[in-house]
Specification:
By secondary structure, the protein is α/β, with parallel strands linked by helices. Among the domains are: about 80 residues, Arginyl tRNA synthetase N-terminal domain (Gyrase A, domain 2, 2-Layer Sandwich); about 70 residues, no CATH class; about 140 residues, Isoleucyl-tRNA Synthetase, Domain 1. The protein is built from 21 helices and twelve strands. The structure holds arginine.
Length: about 550
């Protein structure tokens, strides 16, 4: 807690801002006088009164509470005493009273936030590059719900384009039902890669593929059925991963859903005089805004990614009346989002300002960057499984008798993958390293999980007391309480800045402080019952806050480790 800020908020001096007050509040030379002091000399000229009188008047106006317990005016200084006990009491009582809802609020009541995330491409590998959008989006989804908003999770499927014609062509030529059924995305991707290889020598395959795509669009029963089947197979595969990562969607309306919703958008653009022809294509000129033109229709009349996104945004506004619509998509697509946001603005959509591109950096594997081209990709499923296996090995080494080792390894492994992607500021590129994310002593989820298990084991032996009193407090204890009391503010800031990393870092910071407390202060063998009870309560409060924080990130906490 920032006491200076707290005090500044409680004081009013005409003509002086809170920031100026904040700057003036300082630690007094003699702590006998108080924990903080405000010199009133600077206000004398402004208020045409002596500093002594000003300090006296401010003192009379000041309402003490369970944070600032005493205020005194001495020689033109206003001195404050902080009631650490009151603060600690207030913080812990709040945590126990609110439990799993500690940190939640209803500030978003009545507001809907659409979150477009994960947004996979049908029949394409779900690879490590999709990790960030999936876990960032999933965390934002939970965070917004926690703050009382209605979050709508949208998987804007990439299910539109000639690649589906290619897939049908390849399937008809080389595929068989059983292999594909068994192999799922991997088998589909192999077909796709094979098509590209073969089409180099047989350009006529490409024409065939285009024809098949047209047939899908026209609803030809056979082609449409195959396309639907590819979609189902893909979703069946990725759902396994979504389940592991605790990811949910309210809508899977993908690009093809907008096939029949683009025409009105194009019409409106034309009516508003925004469309111009450029080399046969229909585009919106954005030169004035320092961007290349946004292409709306190709010369053959077919639509583009941006056209479908404009139809999607329009549809979402109508369907959900969103307060904000977030797109959790890699920064490589910065221009795309800037362009179509701008075009919607030029169309006079006042809600275009509520569209937000939540951009994030690249993830690569330590053992070598991936290349999508030649079918040589790192499947996310493999990364997760490898993390679980490695976690199992470490746990088995540390605690071979642990029950439910598999379950624990799953929570630890999955947690490591999630926090590996969430720990840093989202715009940073990440090099994913198994050793780093599974380091028990690092700034990692497993460190936090291990700390929670430690707290739980203390609580098992000591049982958290129903009621407790506040003993003489050490700095280590006060620091821990200060840290856990920051949780509600941390959640709010994470939502405001679209930065779940704030919560991940918060959890590591709390765990570090807890461990300092654990090693510095005896809990179960404390000097007296009062102290022991308080320390148990502090342990229970810490465990609760860490649980709440990790729940928002989608990371489970094993009871024992
Ligand atoms: N499927 C796209 C891709 O993999 C991401 C879609 C993001 N969402 C959107 N509305 N454009 O690149």
């Amino acid at each position: 807690m920032d006491y200076k800020k707290y005090i500044a908020e409680k004081i009013n001096v005409d003509g002086v801002t809170k920031e100026e007050l904040y700057e003036l509040i300082a630690l007094p030379p003699n702590t006998e006088m108080g924990d903080y002091a405000l010199p009133c000399f600077k206000f004398a000229k402004l208020l045409r009164k002596s500093p002594v009188m000003i300090a006296e008047a401010l003192k009379n106006d000041f309402q003490t509470d369970d944070v600032v317990s005493e205020v005194s005016a001495v020689n033109g200084y206003l001195n404050f005493k902080i009631d650490k006990n009151g603060f600690v009491r207030g913080a812990l009582d709040k945590i126990f009273a609110e439990g799993d809802a500690y940190g939640a609020s209803d500030e978003g009541k009545g507001k809907t936030v659409c979150i477009d995330y994960s947004s996979i491409n049908i029949a394409k590998p779900f690879h490590i590059g999709h990790l960030s959008t999936t876990v960032l989006g999933g965390a934002l989804y939970r965070i917004y719900n926690f703050l009382g908003y209605k979050a709508v999770g949208i998987n804007h499927l990439g299910d539109y384009g000639t690649q589906f014609g290619k897939l049908i062509s390849a399937y008809k030529r080389w595929g068989d039902k059983e292999t594909i059924e068994k192999g799922g995305i991997r088998a589909l991707n192999e077909l796709y890669v094979k098509f590209h290889r073969e089409a180099e020598e047989h350009p006529e395959y490409d024409d065939e593929a285009r024809a098949y795509f047209k047939k899908i669009e026209q609803g030809d029963p056979e082609c449409y059925e195959l396309f639907t089947w590819f979609k189902e197979l893909t979703l069946k595969d990725v759902n396994k991963i979504y389940e592991l990562l605790d990811i949910h969607f309210d809508s899977y309306a993908g690009e093809s859903f907008y096939s029949d919703k683009m025409q009105p958008v194009v019409e409106e653009l034309r009516e508003k005089g925004l469309l111009v022809e450029s080399r046969g294509a229909q585009v919106v000129d954005l030169e004035e805004y320092g961007m290349s033109p946004c292409i709306i229709l190709k010369s053959d009349g077919s639509s583009l990614y941006a056209t479908r996104d404009m139809a999607a945004a329009t549809y979402r506004k109508k369907e959900y009346d969103f307060y904000k619509c977030l797109y959790v998509v890699a920064y490589q697509q910065n221009l795309h989002f800037k362009q179509f946001f701008k075009v919607l603005e030029l169309m006079g959509k006042d809600w275009a300002k509520d569209l937000v591109h939540v951009a994030y950096g690249m993830v690569s594997l330590e053992e070598g960057t991936m290349s999508t081209r030649k079918g040589n990709v790192v499947f996310l499923e493999d990364v997760i499984n490898k993390c679980i296996e490695k976690a199992y090995a470490v746990i088995d080494g540390k605690n071979p008798d642990l029950e439910d080792k598999e379950e624990v390894a799953k929570k630890v492994g999955v947690g490591a993958v999630i926090s590996g992607a969430l720990y840093n500021n989202k715009i940073k590129d990440i090099v994913f390293s198994y050793d780093k994310v599974l380091n028990f002593d690092g700034e990692t989820s497993v460190y936090v999980q291990y700390t929670c298990a430690r707290a739980n084991s203390v609580l098992k032996k000591g049982l958290a007391p129903e009621s407790f009193e506040i003993p003489e407090l050490s700095t280590v204890e006060i620091d821990l309480v200060k840290a856990i009391a920051e949780f509600p503010e941390t959640v709010r800031a994470a939502a405001e800045k679209y930065e779940p990393s704030y919560i991940a870092r918060f959890a590591v910071d709390v765990a570090q402080r807890f461990n300092k407390f654990y090693f510095d202060c005896k809990i179960l063998s404390a000097e007296d019952d009062r102290t022991k009870n308080f320390r148990l309560a502090l342990t229970a409060a810490t465990a609760q806050v860490l649980k709440n924080a990790f729940a928002l990130l989608g990371i489970g906490i094993p009871e024992k480790m």
